[in-house]
Write a structure and sequence with these properties.
It contains seven helices and no strands. It is an all-alpha fold and 132 residues long.
Length: 132
């Protein structure tokens, strides 16, 4: 099972896929980290020194979906979507046993505003249609 620090590390890799950490992306990474018990100093250390991405295939189905949701949300949070970010999300999805097409399908249902309510079960059903 991946720790919160490992999840934040994955988000850092995604945010840096375009070689720039946007302010909105940094805020989202901090929000996710703080929600999961990390302090600002711990999060900043991960941002400043990201580690290689670990094996994602061993996650539980719920955790895989949570991480997939997080990386797609973060990709959209700055209002700009780069091809490198899409490719990174597809790589993460593939590493967790999804077909790369899951990123496009879920992206249409995941909003860059985290105050917009989404139906988690409906999104999980969409994601499960893309299991490899």
């Amino acid at each position: 099972m991946l720790s919160t620090k490992e999840q934040i590390n994955i988000l850092v890799h995604l945010s840096m896929a375009d070689n720039h950490l946007a302010e909105e992306e940094s805020k989202m990474i901090h929000k996710v980290g703080e929600r999961n018990g990390l302090n600002k100093k711990e999060i900043d250390q991960i941002i400043d020194n990201p580690k290689p991405i670990p094996n994602l295939a061993d996650l539980s189905p719920d955790k895989k979906f949570d991480y997939l949701y997080s990386v797609i949300f973060l990709m959209k949070v700055d209002g700009k979507i780069f091809q490198s970010e899409i490719k990174f999300c597809e790589k993460v999805a593939s590493a967790m046993g999804y077909k790369p097409s899951v990123v496009a399908d879920l992206s249409g249902h995941i909003y860059s505003d985290d105050t917009i309510e989404v139906d988690r079960q409906a999104l999980l059903d969409v994601a499960n249609q893309h299991l490899a």
